[in-house]
Every structure is written in C-alpha cells, then in structure tokens.
Design brief:
Largest sheet: 3 strands, parallel
Radius of gyration: 16 Å
Structural class: alpha/beta
Strand order of the largest sheet: 1-2-3
Number of strands: 3
C-alpha cells in the first residue's frame, strides 16, 4: 500500500473500467433515486456516460441534460451517445452564464 491514494491509477479514467463492470452498483443507484428520476433531469458529472446510458432508458425521464467538465470524457461520451444533449463545462460556469453573473 502507498501513502498516495491514487498511486495505482495509470490513467485519468482508471475508475471507469471498474465501474463498467459494476452493473449491480449502477442499478442500485438508479433504483434508490427512482422516484426523483422523472421529467427533466440534470446529470452533473456525466463522465463517459455509463450512468447516462441507463438514464436514457428510463421512460419517466422526458429530457436528460448532462454536464461534464473534462473534454476527454466528453469525447468518449459523445462517441458512445452521439445524439445525447451534453454540455462540456463546469456547473458553476453554466449557472453564472445563465444568470448573467461574472466570475
């Protein structure tokens, strides 16, 4: 073991390989939030779209907007779900722009 928590990580997206296999985790997470996942849904931190693809299959969700700040993750998500509505920016930036605020 090392004193550095991410010393074993080889790439920026090292966790996605593990999460890709964690189908029960994703299903449990979606089940826990089932009552809230309806109508317009905002997904903050979409990553490479592993949960996004599950959300898009939910009939109660009428519109899904995803936000992801990492351009490389956005590229992977766009390759996986090319028709999906994705904003490549941070939520704070998006909020300031919509409200007319400046940083």
């Amino acid at each position: 073991m090392t004193d550095q928590p991410n010393a074993m990580a080889q790439t920026a997206d090292f966790e996605f390989a593990a999460l890709n296999e964690a189908k029960n985790y994703r299903l449990a997470l979606l089940r826990d939030f089932e009552k809230q996942l309806r109508g317009n849904v905002l997904e903050v931190g979409a990553g490479i779209g592993q949960i996004t693809s599950e959300l898009l299959q939910k009939p109660a969700i009428t519109h899904l907007l995803s936000i992801e700040p990492d351009k490389d993750f956005c590229a992977q998500l766009r390759a996986r779900l090319p028709q999906h509505n994705l904003l490549e920016e941070q939520w704070a930036t998006c909020r300031r722009r919509r409200s007319g605020m400046r940083s």
